Amino acid sequence: MKSDEDGDKSSEDEVPRVPPHCHITIKCTREIAGFNGLSEAVRRLDFSSAVRDVRRFNYICALLELLVCGQRLTHLPGAAQKLLLSMLEQLADQVATSKQNLNALRALVVGVTALREAERRSCWGRPLGSRALWGHHDHAIARIHRIVNSIRIQEPGPEVVPKLHDLPEECIREILLRISDHRDLDSASSAWSVMASLCSEHRVWRELVNFHFTSQQIDSVQKTDADTDWKKLFHQLRRLYGLREDAQYAETLSLCRHCKCLFWRSLGHPCIADQCPEYRERLKEAGGPLPPHPVPPAAFLKFFSL
Q1: Do both 57 and 143 map to the same domain?
Q2: Lowest mean pLDDT among 114-123, 221-230, 277-286
Q3: Which domain of life is it from (predicted)?
Q4: Residues 203 and 110 in one domain
Q5: Residue 159: CB partners within 8 Å, gap ≥ 6?
Q6: pTM higher than 0.85, yes or no?
Q7: pLDDT category, 11, cuts 50, 70, 90?
Q8: Are 124 and 103 in contact (CB under 8 A)?
């Protein structure tokens, strides 16, 4: 009888987990953006768990790349620097476990190492800032290097069938047609002669062009439909317009237009439109709630003074 009462009590004590979210100041002036703290936003949005989510992994990689390669990391407060290096270490652990996205990890490690070397003698032969903080960074970077160097990609054993080489060309072609990143096509071409032959087909690049660009953008560059070099056309359009940013990530952060809150769209957030009946009625009178606005990595960083 007592155990039943304890079970009922524990179930009543359980509180629904609030999805990760972060309220922010929208204005992007340098003065107002100072009210948004990057390290606090990273904690509230649970970026540490995001590196273990295959849908959000590329988003976190792109964000770290902007901070590292743009040399913004050294302009952050010490706590934010430690937090982001910790994220990079967790990302390295995830890559070591999954054996995926190794090239993305290596690019980040090369960037952060180059940034550290550039800062090493920036002030009278010494790094600018706290010695203890840079010592912490050096240890973190060394640990990340050890993780990267320990990663070994093993070929599947003979018991794993069928292998990629066993598939007919039609299946390989269908795989290539679903790739949205031209760099992956180039890597596939260098890996196997059959893929190189298939990647040279016009259809693969035509589908890539139609995926990333609108008909108006294509018509602005394409002179005639006859004998179009679709690979050349793709790179011309890429340099002119850039690629679809939403296509690079399975999931991005979103901004709620009602409560000015950043959140992961798949997880949702506690919104005023759901919690306040009066506000919900006003929204109905105004035509209904507004859809959340996607926030790519570069737009996310603009909310902060970097």
Answers
A1: yes
A2: 114-123
A3: Eukaryota
A4: no
A5: none
A6: no
A7: very low
A8: no
Q: Are 56 and 303 in contact (CB under 8 A)?
A: no
Quick one: 131 and 189 in the same domain? no
Does 267 fall in a domain? no
Are 130 and 191 within one domain? no
Three-state SS across the chain? CHHHHHHHHHHHHCCCCCCCEEECCCCCCHHHHCCCCHHHHHHHCCHHHHCCCCCCHHHHHHHHHHHHHCCCHHHCCHHHHHHHHHHHHHHHHHHHHHCCCHHHHHHHHHHHHHHHHHHHCCECCECCCCHHHHHHHHHHHHHHHHHHHHCCCCCCCCCCCCCHHHCCHHHHHHHHHCCCCHHHHHHHHHHCHHHHHHHCCHHHHHHHHHHHCCHHHHHHHCCCCCCCCHHHHHHHHHHHHCCCHHHHCCCCEEEECCCCEEEECCCCCCCHHHHCHHHHHHHHHCCCCCCCEEECHHHHHCCCCC
Q: Tokens 């901070």 — which residue?
A: 67
Q: Which residues contact 131 (CB under 8 A, 6 or more apart)?
A: none
Measured CA to CA in angstroms, residue 212 lies from 123, 265, 285 at distances of 45, 22, 37
- Would you state the structure tokens that stand for residue 55, as one six-digit string? 């849908």
Residue 187 lies in a domain: yes
- Residue 226, both tokens: 């006859």
CB 196 within 8 Å of CB 231: no
- The span from the CA of 26 to the CA of 24, in Å, is 6
- Domain, as residue range, for 217: 181-241
Domain count, the chain: 2
Same domain, 56 and 145: yes
Which range has the top average pLDDT, 22-26, 143-147, 280-284? 143-147
In the numeric block, which tokens belong to residue 120? 């090493």
